[in-house]
Specification:
The chain has 228 residues and is an alpha/beta fold. Helix content is 48%, strand content 15%. The strands form two sheets. Strands 2-6-1-7-8 form a five-stranded parallel β-sheet. The model has no long low-confidence stretch (mean pLDDT 91).
């Protein structure tokens, strides 16, 4: 395998997205945020008033929806652009309803099968860093570096609370903790490709580290393995 593949898995709010984006920028890799694809599907269901619990209806929405991740223009502050049926929904999919909906729609085997295929196609013939819940297991099983990025429940809930607050979304901290626990349970107990630490994954706890420190540690590990 000539193209470098870095797979980052882990629970919600462990910092996967920010770390992957920073790493991709510093190493000149393509950043693929797989969660955005599920968030866009959730948004499409919301727009069409389709219940996340209706598997057949969700899959029908997926089949007819054009879900696209686009590299932003040079100099853009964005690390990726999410387009749903040609519309830029990058900001919209960061809201709580699509986050929760993404966890719901991602449990369906047929949905995951289609999404995995699309994600693998994105990673063909180019160096990438990809993050999500089952990247090392299902999407990039041959990735040269698999990372299981985690943090304590309290720290992850705090990060989500602060992210939503910055966006003007007021959610009580108790609710954020409760929803984070619920997301963890759903991700780890789903029948298809549940969140898990693989035997060949390198576990990295980001609880007490800044994003810059985590990226530096990963870069050193890549150097140690002679991958960069």
């Amino acid at each position: 395998m000539s193209a470098l593949q870095i797979a980052i898995d882990g629970p919600v709010a462990a910092g996967k997205g920010d770390i992957a984006a920073r790493l991709a920028k510093e190493l000149h890799l393509l950043y693929i945020y797989t969660g955005a694809m599920y968030r866009m599907l959730a948004l499409a269901c919301i727009q069409e008033d389709v219940s996340f619990k209706d598997e057949k209806a969700v899959f029908a929405v997926l089949e007819k929806s054009h879900i696209e991740l686009v590299r932003p223009e040079k100099g853009s502050k964005e690390t990726f652009l999410a387009k749903l049926n040609g519309e830029d929904v990058t900001e919209r999919i960061m809201e709580p309803d699509t986050a929760s909906g993404a966890s719901d729609v991602s449990v369906y085997p047929n949905v995951r099968k289609v999404m995995v295929t699309r994600q693998q196609q994105l990673a063909d013939d180019q160096p990438v860093v990809m993050e999500g819940r089952d990247i090392g297991l299902r999407v990039l099983p041959n990735a040269q570096l698999k990372i299981f990025l985690t943090a304590s429940l309290e720290e992850r809930a705090k990060r989500r609370y602060e992210q939503w607050k910055l966006k003007g979304i007021d959610v009580p901290m108790e609710e954020v903790v409760k929803e984070t626990k619920s997301r963890d349970k759903q991700d780890m107990e789903r029948a298809t490709d549940p969140l898990q630490k693989l035997s060949d994954s390198w576990e990295l706890d980001s609880t007490h580290w800044s994003q810059e420190e985590v990226v530096d540690v990963i870069k050193k590990e890549l150097e140690r393995r002679h991958l960069v």
